[in-house]
From TrEMBL:
This is C-type lectin domain-containing protein. It holds the Pfam family Lectin_C. It comes from Takifugu flavidus. The keyword Transmembrane helix does not apply. Keywords: Disulfide bond. Residues 22-143, 147-258 form the C-type lectin domain. InterPro entries: C-type_lectin-like, C-type_lectin-like/link_sf, C-type_lectin_CS, CTDL_fold.
């Protein structure tokens, strides 16, 4: 069935365009010295929040900058010490979400996020979990469903966490999820008894989080290693040459605030499908796929929402609006 629908895009930070990038962020340089939390409170009271950057273009839009000014990026140790719901806490790759049950089987003193560089989780032969650098190579177990039954497939070839995830998705379903002791036993039992090598699990986390909740992946650290990794909380400052570094959040520094405008864009989509687009489950699946495609193109902070029309062919917007590129 051929039907026309309207997709509404709510974007913050930059606008939707057929051929251009439109910045909607305005940055404000504040010279007074405050702690990171003090700067965050000041920005939220007088503007919107501490600064988020999507690209080097955003950074270069600031013509004058005090050395080591606070920006919105920060990291909490509680995010990797617990199975919490924080945006940068541990999550399962199969669902993209944190643990629903809070189950874990950490080895003593783990996770420790050594040097702030351990963002993926492995399992020791004894069954205990530990965090490690995602670039390390290990064997792994994939999850699949065979003849209606859950299957756990051991792979003896060593790969980095990301390469192992790709392999599992290409040849099976993905990494398994462990939400209770029974699932833990099933994954552990997939490891051959003769093996004394650790394996990768599907647990990972995305380090650092922006104060405004943005999903921007842009980073510009001057070094890949933190000098302050033992601190309970770390916050990021930007230098006048645009390089970033982490500091104890209690230090007093100038800072950068932001004001962000939100843009709503209507995009006309014509679909040939027999699917019932009034079904909320189908709608959500389509939005998820469209959102993933936009994310791959570098779009962050985009909220998608359907605006359905009264008929298959009738225009769904006012006569003045023409949803064409």
């Amino acid at each position: 069935m051929d039907r026309c629908v309207i997709l509404m895009l709510f974007t913050s930070g930059f606008g939707f365009s057929c051929s251009s990038h439109l910045s909607l962020r305005t940055y404000h340089i504040i010279s007074k010295g405050l702690t990171w939390e003090g700067a965050q409170q000041y920005c939220r009271e007088n503007f919107q929040d501490l600064a988020t950057f999507e690209s080097m273009d955003d950074v270069n839009s600031i013509t004058e900058l005090y050395d080591w000014s606070w920006i919105g990026l920060h990291e909490y140790s509680k995010s990797w010490k617990t199975m919490s719901k924080d945006i940068n806490s541990w999550r399962w790759s199969l669902t993209g979400e944190g643990s629903r049950t809070g189950y874990y089987k950490w080895r003593d003193s783990e996770p420790d996020n050594h040097m702030l560089m351990e963002h993926c989780v492995g399992m020791k032969p004894g069954g205990y979990w530990f965090d490690d650098s995602c670039q390390r190579e290990k064997r792994f177990v994939c999850y699949d469903v065979v003849e209606g039954k859950n299957a756990y497939v051991y792979v003896s070839e060593v790969k980095s966490w990301y390469s192992a995830l790709t392999y599992c998705r290409q040849h099976h379903i993905g990494f398994p999820v462990i939400e209770n002791s029974d699932q833990q036993k099933l994954v552990h039992s997939a490891i051959p008894s003769y093996s004394d090598a650790p394996i990768w699990l599907g647990l990972y986390r995305v380090p650092w989080v922006w104060s405004d909740g943005s999903q921007s992946s842009y980073r510009n650290f001057s070094s890949s290693k933190s000098e302050n990794y033992k601190d309970e909380k770390l916050c990021v400052s930007a230098k006048s040459n645009s390089e970033w570094s982490d500091f104890n959040c209690s230090s007093v520094r100038p800072f950068i605030c932001q004001q962000v405008s939100e843009l709503t864009t209507l995009v006309s989509l014509r679909m040939e499908s027999s699917a019932d687009l009034s079904d909320s489950t189908i709608n959500q699946q389509l939005l998820h796929q469209l959102g993933a495609a936009l994310l791959r193109l570098g779009w962050t902070n985009v909220h998608l929402q359907w605006k359905s029309g009264p008929s298959q062919q009738q225009s769904l917007t006012s006569p003045e609006y023409s949803p064409s590129c």
